[in-house]
Amino acid sequence: MKELSNTYQPTEIEDKWYEYWLENGFFEAQVNPEKESYTVVIPPPNVTGVLHMGHMLNNTIQDILVRRARMQGFEALWVPGTDHASIATEAKVVRLLREQGIKKSDLSREEFLNHAYEWKDKYGGIILEQLKKLGASCDWNRTGFTMDEGYYKAVIRVFVDMYKKGYIYRSLRMVNWDCEAQTTISNEEIIYKEEGERAFLYHTKYELEDGGTITIATQRPETIMGDVAIAVNPTDERFKHLIGKNAIVPFIGRKIPIIGDEYVEIDFGTGLLKVTPAHDPNDYEIGQRHNLPVIDTINDDGTLNDKCEMPEMVGKDRFEVRKLITKKLEEAGLLVEKEEVVSRIGRSERTGSVVEPKLSLQWFIKMKEISATALEVVEKDEIILHPAKFKNTYRHWMENVRDWCISRQLWWGHQIPAYFYGDGDDDFVVAETKEEALQLIKEKTGKEVTENDIRQDDDVLDTWASSWLWPIAVFDGFNDECFDKETGKIDLSKNKELDFFYPTQVLVTAPEILFFWVARMIIAGYEYTGKRPFKDVYLTGIVRDKQGRKMSKSLGNSPDPLDLIKQYGADGVRVGMLFSSPAGNDLPFDEKLCFQGSKFSNKIWNAFLLLKSLEQTSDAIPQGNQVAINWFEAKLNQSLTEIENHYKEYRISDALLGVYKLIWDEFCSNYLEMIKPAYGSPIDKGTYNKTIEFFETLMKILHPFMPFITEELWHLLNERGEKEAIIVAEYPKVKEFDASILEKTEQIFEIVSQVGKVRNAKSIPPKEKLDLFVKVANTTSDSSFYDEYLSLIQKLAGVDKINFTDEKPNPAMSFVVKGDEFSVPVQINVEEERQNLEKEIKYTKGFLVSVDKKLSNERFVNNAKPDIIEKERQKKADAEAKIKALEEALLSLVN
Q1: From CA 545, how far away is CA 686, in angstroms rounded?
Q2: pLDDT score, position 877
Q3: Most buried of the four, 288, 473, 681, 889, by CB within 10 Å?
Q4: Partners of 145 in the beta sheet?
């Protein structure tokens, strides 16, 4: 065997094994009728993205699940890919062109898209290469992109189908508008300052038509020119007499009605609300209820237009106009007060521009009509959210779902397949191709038109309106062969890959896109296949720093994941990420966790070096070693049972902790100490072979979490290549085990631990042998119980002789385990020993009270499993025996 380093060197082996896995095609999956499929589709990161801590957590969890499934014999497939990210990518390309002195407005759509694809080919997908450093076992041959030709066709086909079914419509509605990008944006693309921003309520006088004035408080005086009414709450005794009268818009002189509407909050501001339907979503709703006109005074770029009827304001930015109008109000004596308030101001995630509520002619999907099944399947746990607390959040969203604005005023994305042939808002048809559009126009109008007579809608679809098809489209589920245009359904039997790999098993994603992406994928899955897109949804938390802040580049509080991997190894970082990340709860990340992961790698490495250093003999297995082997076999299967339960409940961090404790505490700290021969002595071949078997099993269990070190050790253990790579080795199955072995051995560990406490209390070095006297309690056992464990106690506790006697040595320090009293002859402080015994008696009596209370609880006894009740009864018996032994020890000490 080659000479090995004394410490684990991750950088030397990670690239080697990743390349080995790729070369041997271990990540690749094919339709295989002899196996069950296990499919995970990656939440496609933005093509603009680079690896951050959230990606690290999310993709580590996915890799763990896929690697374990692969070892369990499933045809495991993890589909990678990226999202075109309309607004984010277009913003980057526009910025790059600006640096080159090129304006988007100077380019044709085709020219701009050529630049965008050049950027994508050069920079897009960097994150996928970075994921390889983490160990992600994706089938890279299947890497998808949401604007690939086949995917693009699928998105357009679904739009046309949804339009035919009456789910998609075009309407003038209130939307979120990014004035810098000049496009609508979705709610999830808006960031609100958590601490709030400094803002003001401007208390402004409006004259009444029949004389007098009223005062209205507004945060947006720049929209005064778009006012069409004043609203009061009809129950407000102060103002309800004004309903039906008219007010005058300052500077404009336009008469507007005073109306009653229950939306108005009596206690907010002055209790009077100016209604500007074009510039506020709530005002728009009021306007719809009262059939009010709409005056849109703000252009797409955030400047004012001539509808404001103030020439000096036309062309000026909305916030500049706010200052100018405020000054004019002051000069005219109309500004009563400028009240400072805390306001949550929404900004575009991509440009930072303050979001403008704006009326715009956009495309929408009727969500109420297609959401019922998606709510029902989660309610009935046909699709299970982990953790379950998000079920309430999901229900709230789905029960209050609003129509989805799916159009964006961008060029990078899936161009909406609507073709206009006239100037009217309804002069269009929806079709997959221009040829189909021309035919539909002829059928609709009876006129022959050519391509030169029509134009396609300039807008593109919201990114989510393409990614909601991801689990289906990555398998080409909307191709001509399997998609029926008449029924709008997919025939899975006509697509072997989709039929085999769909539905997928689990989706790992962030809670903040539970509605925006997860719910919509569920809708699309049932709409087009009649099946759920996945069975389980594992919702990760947000990675935060020690101060509780979300990690981000802008705050400078996020380490570079690749730097962490370079310092601690990919395995160490994977472990570090999971040490504190239960599903759905935020991860308080601390780099020390990665250091602990690195220490764990070294612990495993050192255990391997110890095993390989042992010389072997052909002697039979000694009794003490056989006891150790029997114990660890039982412990292994007990732990594996618990680990499997954690996996089943998607408690991935708990599963890791179970593996960690099994290896570090039970195998390294306990088992190896139990079987390790004296320095320089050989070990029997039977024990050695069994220990190597244990170690290999542990590496299999560990592999999903720490793939690199386990593959390295697997090959070092099998240098002749007799066993295939660990990545495809058979995952251990839980075997039956004798729980009584564990109970007995835990009793022995407790004895060893107590002897250790005596050594520490008296500063007795480990090499100094001690004598141990045992007074067996007749009620619990006899000395024969210890026969098979004597050599083990002597070895682990550093004991020379074990004496079974009813006579307690004097002086001695004593302790009780399971009712049996143990004494180590040493000089003692009688008063100190008396206090210790009294303290332990008091504690044990308190413990006994708690057990009695539980056993006297009828609800507990009637509902608990029999084995749990039996354990409680055993605890009661053990406590009673211990109290008796301690009281006898105290009596003998006093006497």
Answers
A1: 50
A2: 80
A3: 473
A4: 82
Query: What span, in angstroms and rounded, lies between the C-alpha atoms of 661 and 639?
Result: 9
pLDDT confidence of 374, banded at 50, 70, 90?
Answer: very high
- Kindly tell me if the per-residue pLDDT of 849 is higher than 80: yes
| Tokens representing residue 126 in the block | 């960097």
More confident residue, 550 or 201: 201
SS (H, E, C) 667-718: HHHHHHHHHCCCCCCCEEHHHHHHHHHHHHHHHHHHCCCCHHHHHHHHHHHC
Q: What are the φ/ψ torsions at residue 557 (nearest 5 degrees)?
A: -110, 15
More confident residue, 441 or 552: 441
Q: What is the pLDDT of residue 753?
A: 93
pLDDT (0 to 100) of residue 777: 81
Distance CA 548, CA 542 (A): 10
Question: Which amino acid would we find at residue 152?
Answer: Y
Reported residue count of the chain is: 895
Least confident segment among 99-103, 180-184, 472-476: 180-184
Distance CA(637)–CA(631), nearest Å, equals: 10
What is the C-alpha to C-alpha distance for residues 577 and 875, in angstroms, rounded to an integer? 37
Q: Tokens 């100077």 — which residue?
A: 106
CB 100 within 8 A of CB 119: no
Specify the amino acid at residue 502: Y
Calpha distance 38→77 (Å, rounded): 6
The pLDDT tens digits of the residues spanning 699-738 come to 999 999 999 999 999 999 987 566 789 999 999 999 999 9
CA distance 292 to 246: 14
Distance CA 654, CA 652 (A): 5
Burial 541-552, CB ≥16 within 10 A → b, else e: bbbbbeeeebbe
Tell me: pLDDT of 431 over 50: yes
User: 3-class SS at 430?
Assistant: strand
374 CB-side CA count, 13 A: 29
Phi-psi region of 85 (alpha: psi -120 to 50; beta: other; left: phi over 0): left
State the helix-helix crossing angle for 53-71 and 652-661, rounded to 10 degrees.
Answer: 70
Omega of the bond prior to 234 within 30 degrees of 0, cis?
Answer: no
Q: pLDDT-derived band of residue 195, with 50, 70 and 90 as boundaries?
A: very low
Contact residues for 242 (Cβ-Cβ < 8 A; gap 6+) = 208, 214, 230, 232, 258
Coil/strand/helix, residue 457: coil
The first and second tokens of residue 676, run together, are 């390790």
For residue 535, give the amino acid letter.
K
* Angle, in degrees to the nearest 10, between helices 126-134 and 53-71: 60
CB atoms within 10 A of CB 537: 25
Q: What CA–CA distance (Å, rounded) separates 197 from 174?
A: 24
Number of H helices and E strands in the chain, helices first, is 27, 35
User: In this predicted model, what pLDDT tens digit does every residue of 219-246 receive, in sequence order?
Assistant: 999 999 999 999 999 999 999 999 999 9
Question: Helices (DSSP H) in 354-424: which residue ranges?
Answer: 367-379, 390-399
Assigned token pair, 108: 């044709």
The Cα 320–Cα 83 span in angstroms is 37
The share of the chain scoring above pLDDT 70, in percent, equals 97
Answer whether residue 633 shows pLDDT above 70: yes
Q: Measured between alpha carbons, how far is 885 from 823 in angstroms, rounded to an integer?
A: 12
C-alpha span between 656 and 65 (Å, rounded):
12
Q: Is 888 helix (H, G, I), strand (E, B) or coil?
A: helix
How far is CA 318 from its chain centroid?
39
Residue recorded with tokens 């006088």: 205
Exposed, middle or buried, 149 (CB in 10 Å: 0-12/13-18/19+)? exposed
With a CB cutoff of 8 Å and minimum separation 6, the contacts of 432 are 153, 156, 157, 160, 417
